[in-house]
Specification:
Number of strands: 7
Number of domains: 1
Largest sheet: 3 strands, mixed
Radius of gyration: 15 Å
Strand content: 15-25%
Distance between the termini: 31 Å
Structural class: alpha+beta
Order of helices and strands: EEEHEEEEHHHH
């Protein structure tokens, strides 16, 4: 998995002030520590299962803190009642004027490594329902601002 600093504006081939990266951890960089409320963790699980994704990724990437090789296949775990393999998807969360992008592996970083996401991100997570069509619509609107290729095709 690639490392992107919390609060950064660059992810993959995208760079935009309205794009905010959260939770992209990679050894040997330190992980911001703290406790995450169980309700916030449960919301993140729901987002991973039902959330909006900007683009499909191929393959998975294992935690580089746990495995020396990121190409090792990460173990399956239960997320919101479903078996899933973390490390292969990213999810969007709309803020007031930005879109946060985080990896599904954020759950692993929280429960195994004590990662604490920024407060403004967790506040945004609390405000959305991943099953509400308005959530997906808002993500699409914000992503159009970030993804100039998509905006140009409209």
């Amino acid at each position: 998995m690639s490392y992107y600093r919390d609060g950064g504006h660059r992810w993959e081939s995208y760079e935009h002030p309205k794009l905010i990266t959260i939770g992209w951890m990679d050894a040997p960089r330190p992980i911001p520590q703290g406790t995450v409320d169980p309700e916030d963790f449960a919301r993140l699980e729901q987002l991973i299962v039902h959330g909006w994704t900007p683009e499909e990724m191929e393959g998975t990437h294992a935690c580089t803190f746990c495995f020396g090789d990121p190409d090792v296949e990460p173990p399956e775990r239960i997320v919101a009642g479903r078996y899933t393999r973390l490390g292969g998807a990213q999810v969007g969360v709309p803020g007031k004027t930005c879109i946060y992008i985080f990896p599904d592996a954020i759950l692993h970083y929280i429960d195994t490594h004590g990662y604490k996401p920024p407060k403004n991100f967790l506040r945004a997570v609390r405000k959305i329902d991943p099953k509400d069509p308005a959530y997906r619509q808002r993500c699409d609107e914000l992503w159009t601002l970030v993804d100039w290729r998509h905006a140009a095709s409209k």
